[in-house]
């Protein structure tokens, strides 16, 4: 019986994705290959040593990165180069030959770990653009295993992938995969159309290509959360205490906003939207608060200071203009909250404003919905450019670049009657249960192991349902 080798860049338990990987492997079993959890001191004497740990449900194989791999390859090439391109901001991208060498070097380290432990019938599941070179390296090492790569990030449109100086090397490696997975139909189509343009690929079906004699399959597999884990968070003492503190100390009309501290989170537009809301609806003064979460651990190191300073300035301006002696409209929190504490904040919030300028999925939106009290749920405001918008019928969909539209959506959300909030929440929760992390893993790994099982359309029925809702209310 074949096993699963899941490859990710870390297993830090404060990361929602790491929790998802843990829950998937706990149910399915397999081997999790990743770097050491604490990268504070990379490059130690034993940085190349593999550490295998046998677990009750699954095994782990970890190692430390060298300082160059961590600073140049990971923070340099991935965060400063690939991230802007994949998020439609090539103007922010910074590439250097040294960063690319270190990026390839840490991929080599992962490939060494995989080849040491892979059995002939294992399937290898690479997570995200961190491991684009790994597929060809694995083939060059002689592995014939089925290899799949899932893009958690949105795939760049048009010829934007070619803004990467080494795009031909990376593309050649992607063509060594058997299956590429994407969050949305749009992301998959971006890849397919680019392949046809750049390589004159032969389209065999809506989701399959033949390029240079190799057949590669694609598919749409929106990543979900573990709703059982969300239920466990609700029942924790830390969650209940945090929720109680928020309800006692904050206004009933509490908004929550979060996300990575990066250039595509859209946080400045949300702060501007709050200023518009208070100017157009002065009755909210003293009766509404936005909790703006911006943990320093959630962003990219090279941009954190500048972005944090800009956000602090915006929040200070809004608080200065609209604040009172005993009330401020924005609470800007840098604290790195534990998952249980975040759950309490989410449950206490009447509205979640999740409006990234672009995002592969936006798991914060899903966690917010999963943590709500079904008897008295809050309302989700979601960017039309988040991958989750393709699934989450029941959210208020907005243009994240339009503060007036966001302000209108907040005003609408705060006035929705209970029955309407319950109806929206029920639809959202149904989608979360249907497309949870286990369904995501099951579909991807089933298609990776048995390509003949893939639907010809390549689009899940849930995706078609989401597409059919395109006429729902937008602001």
Structure overview:
Keywords: Plasmid. It holds the Pfam family Glyco_transf_20. GO terms for molecular function: alpha,alpha-trehalose-phosphate synthase (UDP-forming) activity. With 475 residues, this protein is an alpha/beta fold. It is built from 16 helices and 16 strands. Helix 8 packs parallel to helix 11. It has a 10-stranded mixed beta sheet with strand order 3-4-2-1-5-6-7-10-9-8, sandwiched between helices. It has a 6-stranded parallel beta sheet with strand order 13-12-11-14-15-16, sandwiched between helices. The model is unreliable at 461-472 (pLDDT under 50). The termini are far apart. It folds into 2 domains: 4-224 and 437-466, Glycogen Phosphorylase B (Rossmann fold, 3-Layer(aba) Sandwich), CATH 3.40.50; 230-434, Glycogen Phosphorylase B (Rossmann fold, 3-Layer(aba) Sandwich), CATH 3.40.50. Helix 1 (16-28) links the parallel strand 1 (4-7) and strand 2 (31-35).
TL;DR?
By secondary structure, this protein is an alpha/beta fold. It is 44% helix and 15% strand. It has a 10-stranded mixed β-sheet with strand order 3-4-2-1-5-6-7-10-9-8, with helices on both faces. It has a 6-stranded parallel β-sheet with strand order 13-12-11-14-15-16, with helices on both faces.
* Morphology call: globular
Level-2 CATH architecture of the largest domain = 3-Layer(aba) Sandwich
- Average pLDDT number: 90
> What is the number of E strands?
16
Biggest beta sheet summary: 10 strands, mixed
Q: Beta-strand percentage?
A: 5-15%
Radius of gyration: 22 Å
Tally of separate domains: 2
Into which percent range does the helicity of residues fall? 40-55%
CATH class of the largest domain: Alpha Beta
Q: What is the name of the CATH superfamily of the largest domain? A: Glycogen Phosphorylase B
Number of distinct helices: 16
CATH fold name of the largest domain, please? Answer: Rossmann fold
Would you identify the regions where 5 or more consecutive residues have pLDDT less than 50? 461-472
SS-based structural class?
alpha/beta
| C-alpha end-to-end distance | 51 Å
Strand order of the largest sheet: 3-4-2-1-5-6-7-10-9-8
